[in-house]
Structure formats: C-alpha cells, structure tokens
Write a structure and sequence with these properties.
By secondary structure, the protein is of the alpha/beta class. The protein has 2 domains: about 140 residues, Spore Coat Polysaccharide Biosynthesis Protein SpsA, Chain A, CATH 3.90.550; about 100 residues, no CATH class. It is built from 9 helices and 13 strands.
Length: about 325
C-alpha cells in the first residue's frame, strides 16, 4: 500500500510454527523465508538484511510485522535521508497502541522518548550497513551495536519527528520491549494543561489525528491484524477531541483561544514541504494528493473563508471534523 514511486522488493522472514500463505497486491516481488525453529529478533533481522543485500537494492528498510506506518512511509523516509545526505534514518516512536490483553482494555499511549532509536523504523543505505556490526543475537536492543563507536548517534540515525511521520508502535502480549524502555503514558486530551497558566496544544498527537483524518494510514479490512489497532486509536482520538471541545467551549484554563490553531493543525492545509528533495505528506485519498492541495482546488471540507477562523467558528468546524475522524 506504499506510494513509493521507485522499484521495491519485499523480503519476509517468518519463524511462526506454520508457514503463511502470502497475499500480495500489485507487482512488488516478494521473497518469503519460513524458518523451522524460533530465532531472536536480531537473528531474524540479520537474515532478512542478508537476503535483501543479495539484490541490487540501494536502500534497506526494516518493517516489523505488527507496526502500522502511513502509506507514504518509504517515500518520506528515503527522501529525507537522501536530502540530508544521511546514511541511516529512523522514526521517533511517539505513539504506542496497546491492544486488549488479560481482561484489560486497549489504550493509546504517548511515548516520552528513548535514549536510542528503535530498530523497527530503521532505513539505511546498504553500503552503510556493510561497514557496521550486525544486529546482536537478542530480542531487545539488538540494533544498539550498529551505533557503537559513533560519537553522535543522533546525527547518524537522522530521526524523523513523530509529528512529521506518525506511525503506530503496536504492543501485544508477546511484545519484547518493556514499558520502561518506551516510557508510555495514556492519551486523554490533545490539550496539555500545565501546572499553572494557560493550556497549550499537544501537536504530535494532533498530527496523528490529522494523519487518520486525511487518510494517510492504509485502509485495513477487519481481518487484517492491524485493523483492531487502528479502530482503537481512532476511538481514543475521538474521545480526546470530544473532551477538548467541552473544555474549550467552557474556556477551561483559557483554552478557547487555542481553538483556531487546534482546527488548523487538525484540518487546515498541509504543511509546507521541507528542504529541497524532501517529500510532502501523502494520502490514499487522491483529493489529498500534494498536487491537488492548491487554494483553487482544495477539497470542500478543507475550505473556510478565513484560514484561521475566530474561536467560536473554529469550535463549530471542530465539531464537524469530529464526525469525519
């Protein structure tokens, strides 16, 4: 479902007890390897990278089976890496969707940050990886070895902020990363209430809601593994928007004045493209394609006579947006 314009190949390494019957769409070639016994995540990453390296691919991108990325993930990440002349790229894990387990309901959580990038979003030039150590034989922190001896891993990994390229890190009962590695906390509102003073906006969370509203995530049928996570996230964000509308209508913590900016972050025109060579955000809806988002040809739902409406009008528009989330 990716909108990447160049040639792609998919390599699948699977150590499930039973081999899968892969269903693919389009003309993307797929190489599937079913392993006869269980392996660590690090071992499987090395196997997949080794298989990918046997092709003529310039770039290798890691994609864990349970995480959900936007349809423009590859195009966005590769364009940023090349525009910045970087060898490696990663995406900030800003949101964690915890699926229901052991009688506990599912929950959408924010991630406070981590000391190193998570391997599940790595994208790198093949030539760079050939000069680095392999993934370690582990299922936790298996990618740390790639950055050993580097004085500035942040510059090397080129993390893309979560508000620019949101994705959903999915936690299930079998997830290996502990909570203290992710530092998650529940999502209840897109308004941040400080200990004192006025409220402010949670822009990364609004970016996630915006991505869902603009159909930037893939459309998954009910039988797809990630469908339940997308439903959970959508319901959580709707509940947060409803709570925020009540708070702004009552002007809690002087929040009503934030309504115009809140609306613009959720519903306004797309952000301006980044430095030369970086791709604009995508969508599976052609109405939201970058070339169709000029002022003369913008979808009616996105148009308002004032690009930043007054608070009362913004609240009305947000109530309409709630129905479309």
């Amino acid at each position: 479902m990716q909108d990447y314009p160049g040639p792609m190949e998919v390599v699948v390494v699977d150590d499930s007890p039973q081999a899968s019957e892969l269903t693919t769409a389009g003309n993307v070639p797929v190489r599937y390897f079913h392993l006869t016994k269980r392996h660590t995540i690090g071992e499987k990453r090395n196997m997949a990278v080794s298989a990918a390296s046997q092709s003529d691919a310039d770039v290798i991108c890691i994609w864990d089976d349970d995480d959900i990325f936007t349809v423009d993930r590859l195009r966005q990440q590769v364009s940023r890496m090349f525009a910045r002349n970087a060898s490696c790229s990663s995406i900030q894990v800003a949101f964690v969707a915890v699926l229901p387990q052991k009688g506990r309901p599912g929950v959408l959580q924010r991630c406070k940050g981590m000391p190193l990038p998570f391997e599940n979003s790595f994208c790198f030039r093949r030539s760079w990886l050939e000069e680095r150590p392999p993934f370690t034989n582990s299922s936790l922190g298996e990618g740390n070895a790639l950055f050993e001896g580097l004085s500035d891993w942040y510059s090397e990994a080129q993390p893309v902020p979560g508000e620019e390229l949101p994705f959903l890190y999915i936690r299930t009962a079998s997830s290996t990363a502990p909570d203290d590695a992710l530092e998650p906390y529940p999502v209840r509102s897109m308004l941040l209430a400080p200990k004192e003073g006025a409220a402010r906006l949670d822009l990364p969370l609004l970016a996630l809601a915006r991505a869902l509203r603009r159909q930037r995530f893939p459309e998954l049928t009910e039988s797809c593994p990630g469908a339940a996570a997308l439903v959970l996230v959508r319901e959580s964000l709707k509940a947060a928007l409803e709570e925020d509308l009540q708070a702004m209508s009552a002007n809690v913590a002087d929040s009503q004045k934030l309504a115009p900016t809140y609306w613009k972050a959720l519903c306004g025109p797309g952000p301006a493209p980044g430095p030369a060579g970086e791709a604009p955000e995508g969508s599976r809806n052609p109405d939201f394609a970058p070339e169709n988002l000029n002022l003369e040809n913008r979808p009616p739902a996105e148009v308002d006579s004032d690009p930043l409406p007054p608070p009362e009008r913004a609240l009305e528009l947000l109530r309409v947006a709630l129905r479309g989330l």
